[in-house]
């Protein structure tokens, strides 16, 4: 089970980082933290004027595909996203399976004005403080990776620190957990995190069950305007897209095309 494997490795890494800097010490650095998290909800909410919202992902590798982008420069990619109208940027920080790095967040935050998501396998408050220290505006919590109690605790902690949370779901059970914890931004991930199989009809099944007023993000496997149009018409506000942008000849052209899918 790849999800269990990633979580296990994440926990091992965390023990090492906590020995270097304790949660208390890390928390104390927050008083001099230069980054104030921005409210991402207006960026991700579909409106009449700007119906399609894009969270564009900085993604070098993945467990399902291995290395996706050889000539990978996170800052250059983030600048291209920002210049072409991305509403938020997802920065993968998991180092082993996605070849991500927490430092990418700071690097990008310094030069790029677009709000940033720390995309990782968050199982501990320590990672939430890290997200803040390194410059994220919101974090991902994966319902499938957490018990209801853990999800609620981590969700409340992030909100308490001023970070928004994208709660990722894969089925009805996850949705129940997301609603219970009070999630306002719900991501439906088409990719099964264990088998890597894509179910592009997952939004059709889950969106009707989501209470009104939530921001809905369609995640993974999105690579054409027809899918974007269809999912937007059934209620998706935003689209989290990684691999496709990493493989196209021009990020700028492709992102603008997606943003204008309804024109
Ligand atoms: O991308 C993977 O292979 C993967 C495998 C196991 C757990 C998570 C995985 N991806 C994380 C993501 O959710 C995606 O990076 C994100 O939704 C963008 O997806 P895509 O546009 O398909 O790159």
From TrEMBL:
Gene Ontology terms describing biological process: L-tryptophan biosynthetic process
Domain spans labelled Indole-3-glycerol phosphate synthase: 3-257
Keyword terms: Amino-acid biosynthesis, Aromatic amino acid biosynthesis, Decarboxylase, Lyase, Tryptophan biosynthesis
The keyword Transcription is assigned to this record: no
Transcription among keywords: no
Catalytic EC class: lyase
EC number assigned by the record: 4.1.1.48
Gene3D superfamilies membership: Aldolase class I (3.20.20.70)
Catalysed conversion reaction: 1-(2-carboxyphenylamino)-1-deoxy-D-ribulose 5-phosphate + H(+) = (1S,2R)-1-C-(indol-3-yl)glycerol 3-phosphate + CO2 + H2O
Pathway info: Amino-acid biosynthesis; L-tryptophan biosynthesis; L-tryptophan from chorismate: step 4/5
One Gene Ontology term of the molecular function aspect: indole-3-glycerol-phosphate synthase activity
Top-rank lineage group of the source organism: Bacteria
Xref: InterPro entries: Aldolase_TIM, Indole-3-glycerol_P_synth, Indole-3-glycerol_P_synth_dom, Indole-3-GlycerolPSynthase_CS, RibuloseP-bd_barrel
Entries under Pfam families matching the protein: IGPS
Family label: Belongs to the TrpC family.
Name of protein: Indole-3-glycerol phosphate synthase
Organism: Arcobacter ellisii
């Amino acid at each position: 089970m790849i999800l269990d494997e990633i979580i296990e490795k994440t926990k091992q890494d965390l023990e090492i980082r906590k020995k270097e800097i304790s949660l208390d010490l890390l928390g104390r650095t927050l008083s001099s933290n230069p980054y104030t998290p921005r409210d991402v909800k207006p960026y991700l909410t579909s409106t009449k004027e700007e119906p399609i919202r894009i969270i564009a992902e900085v993604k070098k590798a993945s467990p399902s595909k291995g290395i996706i982008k050889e000539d990978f420069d996170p800052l250059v990619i983030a600048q291209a996203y920002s210049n072409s109208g991305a509403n938020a940027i997802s920065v993968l920080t998991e180092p082993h399976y996605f070849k991500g790095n927490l430092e990418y967040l700071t690097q990008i935050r310094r030069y790029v004005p677009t709000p940033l998501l720390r995309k990782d396998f968050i199982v501990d408050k320590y990672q939430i403080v890290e997200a803040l220290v390194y410059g994220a505006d919101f974090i991902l919590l994966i319902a499938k990776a957490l018990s209801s109690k853990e999800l609620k605790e981590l969700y409340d902690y992030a909100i308490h620190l001023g970070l928004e949370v994208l709660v990722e779901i894969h089925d009805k059970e996850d949705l129940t957990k997301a609603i219970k914890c009070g999630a306002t931004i719900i991501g439906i991930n088409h990719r099964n995190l264990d088998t890597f199989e894509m179910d592009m009809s997952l939004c059709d099944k889950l969106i009707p069950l989501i209470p009104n007023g939530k921001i809905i993000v369609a995640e993974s496997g999105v690579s054409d305007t027809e899918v974007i149009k269809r999912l937007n018409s059934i209620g998706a506000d935003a689209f989290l897209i990684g691999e496709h942008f990493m493989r196209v000849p021009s990020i700028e052209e492709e992102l603008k095309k997606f943003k204008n899918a309804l024109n």
